[in-house]
């Protein structure tokens, strides 16, 4: 079947029969999400987008009501207190429980909620008899969960990482009566949904672990508590805590609504609330205390006891409008799950079936299943792209190309080293070697010795549309597929009917060597003779002599090139090359990733007049001095900016240039240049050394 036809809405409806929320989704996105028009936003697992009506209703609310400190008993304080309590109830209602079953403790985010549990859990250090608390977590956990061991190790608590397959494979009946004798508290943490692959772990693990039917609880007597990390899960899926009564559930609201940020919550089951202990007590958390004596009585209500100081009450009020907007636009979280899973399933089927002209697969997918059901898989795809010879294409290259197409994805290991190691087959020894080679979390070193250090993640949100899938698939086909674009029809049909058999990962197949190059085989068609001849020709041509035919300089970072035939050299390269850059109103550097119209600006360096000319279609040409006049140069013009993480000291080029750029780009911005008195120290991580440069080029 033709790839273009596969990228049609008709094909989508053959794969999944749920789309939208009963009305015209395009009209809804036009009304509620005007700011992302033209943007293909596929990073909802990091944060989703907020609708305009949420912000509008929220600002109308805080504009017409007087909200005071909820600790005050005056009318404005009581209004705030009552509104905050209403939001607590709505949070519990969303998870199908009541205030009699759970308490809501507001925090600054999911990570803060996890830290609260870590600091308050009644850990017991290991004794000579071996009786001590265990901190256990699934290896497919977020950094913020694994980081709890930083606290527990200092308290003499044993840490036990658990591989996902061990939970049920090692399950056995626990000895009866042991819990009566041993009341040591243990904590098991696992994600409701992997933020790496979107895999949904069984919610039945909650009761199974509490009842000590599953590993590791079945092998260790004591009282087992379960922390269910729901941050990734609740963004697009319902969670019924009546069915899986976990003891602790941390969440972040920006993953659900997009706004507010910096606000999360810890839901605590009533059976676990009484065992939490805290040392520090802040304002509002005490029933009574004495300043002259060591006397303190905590507040009876658990929310009051653990919310130190005044909560972020205006942000909490915004959550109320978040629930309103979500229900108004979608009709509820169950509809969101059906819609987002359909988009993810369709994209997975097409991407995993896409092939190069020689029949080799384009993508190596990192998933446990085949996207059969929204009960086992969330709206997340994780993968790496491969070239026509089976070599992994580094995720940084994919990310840079996606940015040029205004497609927003996430790359790296996503703060989940355990899943990254498992799917990419990276040993702990190799992880250490990667660090020695200069690779650290969050950088752009995507390949070490040809092996990937991370991957690409695409995730959908409730306002995502079929066009988002379409644009992404067209982008992959256009930029990374050796033509002609082909499709593995057999795989496509199996996946469409939901009968795809589990496959071995591509990296499990034998490695073949050709012309000194290593690539993985996967049982699909071998490279044809024509493609191999093309590879040989390209390699032989790479040794031919080269002639310099054109010289281009880029005076302003990310703007158009200026072609010259001969040009003077400066201390570190071509004179005036990338000496200027455009920044927004917050002095943040603008690149074509953020503002594509920069490429339509054509600067020219006119040496005879000592001027930099700014030109663009429909705009009058203006001139900016090439050199900084020391007599007019004042400290007010000096500002600090960053280029690729390096701090640079720059000088503003004046209001005329700022006005010209702002008019053309349609946003407040200014032209700045590197200060002549400043030397940029660019640290190169791989070598671990600093290089002194005086230009604004990328690191």
Automatic annotation (TrEMBL):
The gene is MOCOS. GO terms for biological process: Mo-molybdopterin cofactor biosynthetic process. It comes from Xyrichtys novacula. This is Molybdenum cofactor sulfurase. Its EC number is 2.8.1.9. It catalyses: Mo-molybdopterin + L-cysteine + AH2 = thio-Mo-molybdopterin + L-alanine + A + H2O. Sulfurates the molybdenum cofactor. Sulfation of molybdenum is essential for xanthine dehydrogenase (XDH) and aldehyde oxidase (ADO) enzymes in which molybdenum cofactor is liganded by 1 oxygen and 1 sulfur atom in active form. The modification N6-(pyridoxal phosphate)lysine is found at residue 255. It is an enzyme of class 2 (transferase). Pfam families: Aminotran_5 (PF00266), MOSC_N (PF03476).
């Amino acid at each position: 079947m033709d790839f273009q036809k596969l990228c049609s809405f008709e094909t989508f409806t053959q794969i999944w029969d749920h789309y939208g929320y009963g009305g015209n989704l395009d009209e809804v996105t036009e009304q509620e999400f005007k700011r992302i028009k033209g943007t293909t936003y596929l990073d909802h697992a990091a944060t989703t987008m907020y609708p305009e009506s949420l912000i509008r209703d929220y600002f109308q609310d805080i504009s017409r009501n007087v909200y005071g400190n909820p600790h005050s008993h005056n009318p404005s304080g009581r209004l705030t207190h009552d509104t905050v309590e209403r939001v607590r109830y709505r949070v519990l209602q969303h998870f199908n429980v009541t205030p009699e079953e759970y308490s809501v403790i507001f925090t600054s985010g999911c990570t803060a909620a996890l830290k609260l549990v870590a600091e308050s859990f009644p850990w017991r250090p290991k004794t000579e008899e071996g009786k001590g608390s265990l901190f256990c977590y699934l290896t497919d956990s977020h950094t913020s969960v694994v980081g709890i061991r930083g606290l527990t190790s200092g308290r003499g608590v044993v840490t036990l990482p658990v591989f996902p397959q061990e939970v049920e494979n090692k399950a056995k009946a626990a000895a009866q009566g042991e819990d009566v004798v041993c009341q040591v508290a243990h904590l098991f943490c696992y994600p409701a949904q992997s933020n790496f692959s979107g895999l949904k772990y069984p919610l039945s693990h909650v009761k199974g672990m509490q009842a000590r039917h599953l590993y590791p609880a079945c092998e260790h007597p004591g009282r087992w508590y379960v922390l269910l990390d729901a941050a990734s899960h609740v963004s697009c899926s319902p969670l019924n805590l009546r069915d899986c009564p976990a003891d602790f559930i941390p969440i972040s609201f920006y993953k659900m609504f997009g706004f507010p940020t910096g606000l999360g919550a810890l839901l605590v089951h009533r059976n676990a609330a009484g065992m939490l202990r805290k040392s520090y007590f802040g304002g509002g958390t005490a029933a009574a205390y004495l300043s002259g004596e060591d006397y303190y009585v905590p507040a009876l209500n658990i929310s009051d006891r653990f919310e130190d100081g005044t909560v972020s009450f205006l942000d909490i009020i915004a959550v109320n409008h978040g629930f309103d907007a979500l229900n108004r636009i979608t009709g509820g979280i169950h509809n969101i799950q059906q819609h987002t899973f359909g988009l993810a399933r369709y994209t997975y089927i097409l991407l995993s079936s896409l092939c190069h002209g020689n029949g080799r697969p384009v993508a190596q997918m990192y998933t446990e299943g085949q996207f059969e059901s929204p009960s086992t898989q969330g709206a997340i795809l994780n993968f790496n792209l491969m070239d026509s010879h089976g070599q992994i294409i580094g995720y940084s290259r994919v990310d840079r190309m996606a940015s040029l197409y205004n497609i927003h994805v996430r790359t790296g290991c996503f703060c989940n080293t355990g899943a990254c190691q498992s799917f990419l087959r990276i040993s702990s020894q190799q992880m250490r070697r990667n660090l020695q080679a200069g690779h650290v979390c969050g950088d752009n070193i995507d390949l070490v010795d040809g092996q990937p250090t991370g991957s690409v993640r695409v995730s959908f949100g409730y306002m995502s549309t079929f066009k988002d899938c379409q644009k992404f698939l067209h982008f992959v086909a256009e930029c990374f597929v050796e033509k002609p674009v082909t499709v593995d029809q057999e795989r496509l049909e199996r996946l469409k009917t939901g009968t795809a058999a589990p496959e071995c990962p591509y990296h499990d197949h034998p490695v073949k060597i050709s012309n000194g190059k290593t690539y993985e085989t996967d049982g699909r068609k071998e490279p044809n003779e024509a493609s191999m001849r093309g590879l040989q020709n390209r390699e032989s041509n790479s040794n031919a002599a080269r002639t310099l035919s054109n010289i281009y300089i880029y005076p302003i970072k990310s703007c158009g090139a200026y072609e010259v035939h001969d040009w003077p050299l400066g201390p570190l390269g071509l004179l005036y090359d990338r000496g200027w850059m455009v920044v927004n109103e917050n002095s943040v550097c603008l690149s074509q990733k953020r503002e594509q119209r920069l490429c339509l600006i054509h600067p020219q360096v006119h040496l005879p007049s000592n001027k930099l000319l700014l030109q663009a279609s429909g705009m009058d040409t203006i001139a900016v001095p090439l050199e900084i006049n020391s007599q007019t140069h004042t400290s007010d013009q000096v500002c600090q900016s960053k280029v690729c993480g390096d701090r640079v000291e720059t000088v503003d080029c004046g209001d005329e240039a700022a006005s010209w750029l702002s008019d053309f780009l349609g946003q407040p911005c200014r032209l700045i240049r590197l200060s002549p008195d400043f030397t940029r120290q660019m640290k190169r991580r791989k070598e671990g050394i600093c290089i002194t440069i005086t230009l604004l080029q990328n690191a």
